[in-house]
Amino acid sequence: FQRIKENNIPMVYGPLDSLPYKVELKHESWRNTEYLMKSGVKFSMMSDHPVILQRNIFYTMRHFMRFGMEKHEVISKLTSDAAEILGISNLGRIEKGFLPSMILWNDDPFSLTSHPITVIGEGKIVYHT
């Protein structure tokens, strides 16, 4: 990770917990999360859907929180940091001039008992209970 940092190369990291399914992840280790966070490399997270279902991104997010990342930091790894790394200037934030896409939850989205109550995609309500 240090060489990646020295060369200022951003990284899209993931998926985690898919070792037997992905040949390219045969050297993956849960310790890489800690090394990545300590390195200072700019990174975002990915799920690799449809090969590894997007619902598994919650495992990845929780894993980063176990290593000390705050919820808002983890969420930015899937939103604003991802958009910035991909060079997409009008996504990833809820601000004027951006295409707002977000999910409103009835409770903490990291809780297994919470559920979406409203989904907004590119400024339009696409689901509401």
From TrEMBL:
A GO molecular-function descriptor: hydrolase activity
Signal peptide range in chain numbering: none
Domain spans labelled Amidohydrolase-related: 4-126
Coiled coil: none
Key words, A-Z: Hydrolase
Record bears the keyword Hydrolase: yes
Short name of one Pfam family: Amidohydro_1
InterPro entries assigned to the protein according to its UniProt record, in alphabetical order: Amidohydro-rel (IPR006680), Metal_Hydrolase (IPR032466), Metallo-dep_Hydrolase (IPR051781)
Name used for this protein in its record: Amidohydrolase family
Organism, scientific name: mine drainage metagenome
Organism lineage: unclassified sequences, metagenomes, ecological metagenomes
